[in-house]
Structures are given as structure tokens and as C-alpha cells.
Amino acid sequence: MTDSVAVVGAGLAGATIVRTLRERGFTGRVSLIGDEVHLPYERPMLSKEFLTTGVTRDALQVRPMAQYEADEIELVLGRRAIRVLPGVGVQIEGGAVVPADHVFLCTGVRPRSLPVRGSELPGVISIRNLEDAEALREAVARGDRTVVVGEGFIGSEVAATLAGRGADVTLLMGGELPMQPAMGPEAGAWLLAEHRKSGIAVRERSSIRSIGGGNRAESVELTDGTVIRAGSVVMAVGCEPNVDLAIDTGLVLDDGVLVDSRGLTSSARVHAVGDIARFPSATFGRTLRVEHWQHAQQHAQVAAAALVGDGDIYDGVPWAWSVQHGHRIEIAGLPWAGDTTWRRGDPNGPDGALWISGRAGRIIGAVSVNRRRELRAVLRALRRAPVVVVGDAGELADSDSDLRMLLDAMASA
Length: 413
Ligand SMILES: Cc1cc2nc3c(=O)[nH]c(=O)nc-3n(C[C@H](O)[C@H](O)[C@H](O)COP(=O)(O)OP(=O)(O)OC[C@H]3O[C@@H](n4cnc5c(N)ncnc54)[C@H](O)[C@@H]3O)c2cc1C
Known about the structure:
Bound molecules: flavin-adenine dinucleotide
Number of domains: 3
Structural class: alpha/beta
Oligomer: single chain
CATH superfamily of the largest domain: FAD/NAD(P)-binding domain
Low-confidence stretches: none
Distance between the termini: 47 Å
Helix content: 10-25%
Shape: globular
Strand order of the largest sheet: 3-2-1-7-19
CATH architecture of the largest domain: 3-Layer(bba) Sandwich
CATH topology of the largest domain: FAD/NAD(P)-binding domain
CATH class of the largest domain: Alpha Beta
């Protein structure tokens, strides 16, 4: 019997859990503990329009204050949780304990840092929270030159957004193509060309030796001796899960907190949800940890419902979107794990392109550039099961075929 719940981490997953608990009729005490001072907010815009337009903080809120009040959620914001006491509650900095029979850990991920000289200087920013994005927005408005370190999802997107407003941007890539392995080589080559077309100075195979400057960042020095002037340096070299509390609690970890199909950890009194959790994917026959918006929301809904006795299990198919240079990029399933690719269309054409990935004769993912309807068809198919490719596989690359019908036919063969 659970009378009280504490949710640690006031991000998208945390906000979704407290709402879902009330929607599902949980009437006990619900506390939402967050180390940020803000109400839970949406992060995707932080690397997109928030950087270049006047989007306000309030516009990012997952839901307004009135909703938490109506739901009678106790908000403990601007306070870091320092210990989980299973069955007792959560200790927050300062020593107080928020009482709870059950805890949801939703502490997300934190940006990795590079151990180079100067990385602590003001002007070196990782885009994870509102303050980071505001600092970059101000720097760009001042006309700062920006060096973005890292060509993954966030680095590539930030560089594209800043270039879109005419900022002076250099993108330092460790590899040769952006957003690898997620996008695959063809789509990556297309994106690289788009970056260059928009004026981003892209440098492949670059590694940083140090960041120079007195009171704040002024330049980036590469290991080949090149020095690039920069007023802002965006560090976008990946993230790692915030598992400190989970380690302290003795939870089983595996690059994140290992959970079952309802988000329950190795402790019967602790769930872990969202970016921090590694869950069993029945669809793909492996465990996955997913750092995407939709996953955080849907995982939270299933985990919160499980606490009140709902029998649903979570088997979400990863899906993420990005907007770069006015193009909508979507990634579904596990395209990076494929051994075969079929391309439909042309990323430079009016109907865009879709790369379908297969592995061992099954379709396991897709990447789309402006070809949303077909991406949806793959996603819909994957939600049932990875489709076994039967018949003429070449039809998958025939842009004139109806992909949805083709996948349905393959699935029922
Ligand atoms: C700049 C950016 C752009 C993105 N764009 C996209 C996109 O286009 N598409 C997409 O699908 N996904 C995108 N994402 C990913 C998406 O935002 C995340 O998957 C989602 O926010 C995860 O939600 P979460 O609740 O698990 O974690 P978070 O949103 O990170 O929330 C975790 C919260 O817990 C807090 N916390 C950590 N430790 C403690 C502690 N000890 N005590 C109290 N609080 C703590 C953190 O400060 C944070 O507020 C983007 C992410 C970023 C950063």
C-alpha cells in the first residue's frame, strides 16, 4: 500500500509522473523535488528557436503552476536530493527528509565535459538547461563568435540554429560526418553539405588541446596547433546519466538504472524513468536507454500507472526529431544498428528522403529528411514488431510504391 510518493527530478518525466498519478486516481501525498528553480520545462526548444527568438521561459513550461496546485502536488524546487531512503523518503540538501513510501528517480542526464585546460572559463557552455541556453542566446545577440564542439544531435542542431540567424559558427567534429551513427553515412553527408551551405565552418577530425582566455573564453586551440577565436564555446560531447543517487541506494546499474518493463528498479520501492532508465525492449530483444522527449513522457505514463495497479508494460520504439536549416529530420527505431539500407527519394528534392534500415532480414529503423508520412509508416510497423523483409526487397527503395501498404503486406506474409 502506497500512501505517499516523492518524484526526484522535475523535468519532463517527473512532471508527467505527478500528473499521471492524479489522472489515475492516486490520492496520497505527491512531492516533486527538483534541483532547478523552475517548474518542469521542455528542453527541445533550447537548441532550436529559443536561441534565436524571443521565446519566454514560461512558454517552455510543461504545464502551468495552476495545474500543480489543482493536483495538490507539493513542489520542492531549487533543492537537490542527496539521498533516497527506500520506504522512508528522500533527503534533500540541508538535511530535511521529504516523506515517501515510494520514489520515482527521474534525474535525467548531464553533459559530459572535456578535460582540457580552460574548460571551466565563463563562456564555455553546455546546452542542458534554461540558463545555458539563455547565456548562449545573449552571447550570440552580442555578436560573439561561437565554436561548437561535437557533431552529435545537440552540437549539430545548435550550430545549424545559430547559422540560421547569421552567427559566425565553427563546428568541430571528432569524426567526418554529423550525427553519426544515428543518421547513417548518406544522410550524414547530406547534413554536412547543408551545414557548409549555411556558412558553418566545419572542421572534421578535430580535437581540442585547450580553451584560451583570461576572464572568459577567447579562443580554442586544436591539437594540430590551429587557434580559432571564440567568445562562446558550446561543449556538446554527449551526456551521462545522473546515477549518483541510484549508486548510493544500491540499485542495479547498466549505463543508467536498470528497470523492468514497468520502470521498477531492483528496489521494490523505487522506479526510474526517462533518460536515466535502461528498459527491456521486447520489440528489439535487448535493453535500451533512450534520451528522447517522447520516451520520457510515455515511459513516465506507464510507470506512474503501474504504481496504481495498471498492468500495461512499456515497449516504446525510440523516436526523435530535429530541425536543422529548415529541414525536419526524424529518427525511428534503431537505424544505427542496421546492416542494410534502402533509400527512398532524395534529401535535396521536394519530397525529401527516407533511409530504411534492416538487420538480419528485418526492418529495425528509419531516418527521414522531410519525408514524414513514410517515417510514420515505419514507426507504425515497428510498434507491432520489426517487419521481416519478404518478397522483392527492392520495392522498399522504389519511391513510387506505397510504403505503408508494402510494410503491411510484408508483416502479414
Ligand atoms: C537542448 C536539448 C534539445 C533536445 N531536443 C530534443 C529533440 O529535438 N527531440 C527529442 O526527442 N528530444 C530532445 N531532447 C531530449 C529531451 O529533452 C529529454 O529526453 C527529456 O528532457 C528527458 O526528460 P527527463 O525528465 O528524463 O530528464 P530531464 O529533462 O533532464 O530532467 C531531469 C531533471 O532532474 C534534475 N535533477 C538531477 N539530479 C537531481 C537531484 N539529485 N535532485 C533533484 N533534481 C535533480 C535535473 O536538474 C533536471 O531538472 C533535447 C534535450 C536537450 C537538452
